[in-house]
Amino acid sequence: MPGHTPQRSAILVETRALLAPAFPIALTNLSQMAMALTDALILGRFSTEALAAVTLGTSLCWALLAPAFGMALAAAPMLAQSRGAGTRGGGLGRGWMRQMRRDARQALWAVAIVTLPSWAVLWHTEAVLVLLGQAPSLAALAGDYVRPMMLGFPAFCMFILLRGFLAAMERPNAALWIAFGAVVVNGALCWGMVFGLGLGVFGAGIATLLAQLFMAAALLWLIRRDRVLRRFRLLGRFWRPDAARLAEVFRVGLPIAGQMMLEIGVFATALIVVGWFGARAIAAHAIAIQLASFTFMVPMGIGQAATSRVGLFAGAGAPGAAALSGSVAIWLGATFMALMAAVLLVFAEPLAWGFLDPQDAEARSAARLGATLLMIAGVFQLADGVQAVAAGALRGLKDTRVPMLLTALGYWGIGLPLGVALALWAGLETRGVWWGLALGVGIVAVLMLMRWRRMVAPGSAAMGVAVRSPVG
């Protein structure tokens, strides 16, 4: 066939192979984001103040629980490389199954270890937010939401870990269906508790807790029912210590956690700055961040699929295939986010109004500002997709420390300081914060792409080390 070169054929084959796990993983991410989006839509109808308060509480919660999330995500490259190492020479003995069980078990231990101190701080959410200059009324509502919601986070981390196991086994569909089920469960419970029982934001927190417990329990139940997967006995001898594997989880997971804390933290800090301009500004920020986060779930899913694919190839000793897989994933993420940029730029105003009650006196000004922020979000969509997928591909090589440092430079060294300067001294207020974030995302994207190209360059010593040092 004219023009159908071997390289082009390899790209098409890898695209199909990557989309097989990426599609359900991305949909799973979208369904998880749909839970937060559902809460925002329901609470926005309850009151603009409730929407603002829950946005503050959720932002603080995710920033402080990022270490636990990082430990859960660390399991994905470890599980993938353990399975990849087991495929070398066609040998699939039981050793790699034991390795994967150890990976999962110690990742759960790591989640438990880092969650406890985060809980201690989050229990005092109201006091923390007041210290950060937020209105006492909003801080009190945020505390009411966070206290029940934070208790479900270990279950959510278990779901993420089990999803990583299924991705390594190239069977991600079960997590997808359970995540969609959780959207329905959360939506019904949230509406019933907020309006039916009149519990307001506290009821929304309880609904999130119950939905997270449902996700973990349902996925664990399905794995235990599967004839092949139950042979791994992932929670078997859970109490058994394994210092070497636990140290490996922390070695891989701490930089991931650090990168997430830097990324989530910069948006949390930006929200604190936005909060200085009142509840209307927070509500507008909530609208924009919810929709920008929703589109981000797709490249995040592609990046998670790339972690598994690149990890499998790295563990199997195939650097060329690992390089091709990650590069194809980055291209897919960039293409999708370019389309989403167009959507946000064209439909910013009607999208903003979808979150607000037209009868609310604050709604018109919040919708106008929200639409402006959505247009700024549209500007950085492409960069956000590139940096997310590139970071996921690098995790497949267990390259996590340098990406963490790159994130620190782009977000905290440049983006946030510029955003604060534009907000406070240039008089742009909330818009200034978002323009600073846009620049930070762009810088991180360029740096991550450069790092990926260096890691997978032909003859790269970094790639050689990654491939010759599989987990276990």
Question: Any overview of this molecule?
Answer:
With 472 residues, the protein is mainly alpha-helical. It has one domain (6-468). The protein has 18 helices and no strands. The protein has helices spanning 6-46, 48-64, 66-86, 95-122, 125-131, 136-150, 153-168, 173-196, 200-225, 243-275, 279-315, 319-346, 348-353, 363-379, 381-396, 401-424, 430-455, 461-468. Helix 15 (381-396) packs parallel to helix 17 (430-455). It is globular, with a radius of gyration of 22 Å.
SSE blueprint and pairings:
Elements: H1 6-46, H2 48-64, H3 66-86, H4 95-122, H5 125-131, H6 136-150, H7 153-168, H8 173-196, H9 200-225, H10 243-275, H11 279-315, H12 319-346, H13 348-353, H14 363-379, H15 381-396, H16 401-424, H17 430-455, H18 461-468
Total of domains: 1
Give a quick account of the main beta sheet: strands, pairing sense, barrel closure. none
Helix-strand string: HHHHHHHHHHHHHHHHHH
Molecular shape = globular
Average pLDDT works out at 82
Q: List unreliable stretches of 5+ residues.
A: 461-472
Helix content: over 70%
How much beta, percentage-wise?
under 5%
In terms of structural class, how would the helical and strand content be classed? mainly alpha
